[in-house]
Design goal:
This protein is α/β, with parallel strands linked by helices and 300 residues long. It folds into three domains: 5-96 and 193-213, Periplasmic binding protein-like II (D-Maltodextrin-Binding Protein, domain 2, 3-Layer(aba) Sandwich), CATH 3.40.190.10; 103-179, D-Maltodextrin-Binding Protein, domain 2; 238-299, no CATH class. Helix content is 28%, strand content 23%. The protein has helices spanning 13-28, 41-44, 61-68, 125-134, 147-152, 165-170, 203-208, 214-229, 276-287, and strands at 5-9, 33-37, 74-78, 90-95, 103-106, 119-121, 139-141, 160-164, 177-179, 194-199, 238-245, 248-256, 263-270. Helix 1 links the parallel strand 1 (5-9) and strand 2 (33-37). Helix 8 runs parallel beside helix 9 (276-287).
Length: 300
């Protein structure tokens, strides 16, 4: 039995801020822990658009390998970076309460006030295609780097950037921004959720189970079930968001083809989260041949 748990995270300020949130929750249940930083493939390559990188899990694989090698006890990830299939020896044990799942336009002006030809930065196909649908007269260009670097691009070649609202909040960013509604820009699956991954059957797994936020875990599972059924990876141009109102789960999903010229949007309700698998099958049926047009560049 280890005297303390070792948490693994990327060295970015945002990743460490998220890891600190997990660390505090673990300490609240009486466990000692420390943080170890691990650079991921996504940290080493800051030039390529995320949708053009090969292999799934560029932000998580190196950390998960350290977990499997026994060098850390818990991997702390943004759940949206996790592939639908983790591997038989790993398990998402717990998640923290979901933060704001929306995307935000970081800009001095709202989207509707930007002049035609304004340059918007993002490295997400989903955000790129949603922006083009909302404002086809804007230029959407790739932007990489950590959160501070991307915000620093505003006024230096970019007029605005689109970032996850959850990350902006966790970093206490005060820059002017305009959150999109969920209907305007359907969030990426699991956006706003911090996930704790452990080796199945480990001591850490048993310990970390105690901090799980059940409703956020269910929302994550519904969204991941749909991604798994459609065989889509993290960079696919797809948004899926599950939320609970009363006893009903509401699920909105939007899928784009490989060049963003076509999209399909579905709105569904579940009376119980156990219906997620059936919903995923039904969405695949409704998509029909369109599912083959949803190109996931991570699987190219």
């Amino acid at each position: 039995m280890p005297s303390r748990l070792v948490l693994g995270a990327r060295p970015s300020k945002l990743s460490l801020a998220q890891c600190e949130l997990a660390l505090r929750r673990i300490k609240d249940i009486g466990l000692d822990c420390e943080i170890r930083t691990i650079r991921s493939a996504g940290d080493r390559d800051l030039q390529s658009p995320l949708y053009a990188t090969r292999g799934q899990g560029i932000f998580v694989s190196d950390i998960n390998n350290e977990l499997l090698d026994g060098n850390i006890d818990v991997a702390v990830h943004s759940a949206k970076d996790l592939p639908a299939k983790l591997g038989k020896d790993l398990r998402i044990v717990s998640v923290l309460p979901r933060d704001d799942p929306r995307d935000s336009l970081v800009s001095p002006l709202p989207l509707e006030s930007l002049i035609p030809g304004s340059v918007i930065g993002t490295s997400s196909l989903r955000r790129m295609f949603e922006l083009r649908k909302l404002r086809p007269d804007l230029r959407v260009m790739n932007v990489r780097g950590n959160l501070e670097t991307r915000i620093g691009k505003i006024g230096n070649g970019y007029d605005a950037v689109v970032l996850a609202e959850a990350g902006l909040r966790r970093m206490n960013v005060e820059a002017k921004r305009f959150p999109f509604t969920v209907d305007q820009m359907v969030p990426a699956p699991n956006q706003g959720i911090i996930a704790l991954v452990c080796v199945a059957g480990s001591y850490a797994e048993r310990m970390v189970e105690g901090i799980n936020d059940e409703q956020s875990y269910i929302a994550m599972s519904i969204e991941r079930e749909i991604m798994d059924r459609l065989n889509l990876g993290c960079s696919a141009p797809a948004g899926i968001f599950a939320s609970k109102s009363g006893d009903i789960w509401h699920v909105i999903s939007r899928f784009y083809n490989s060049d963003g010229t076509e999209s399909k949007t579905f709105r569904d309700k579940l009376s119980d989260s156990s219906e997620a698998a059936s919903l995923a099958i039904d969405i695949k049926r409704r998509l029909g041949n369109f599912v083959n047009k949803i190109r996931d560049h991570n699987q190219a």
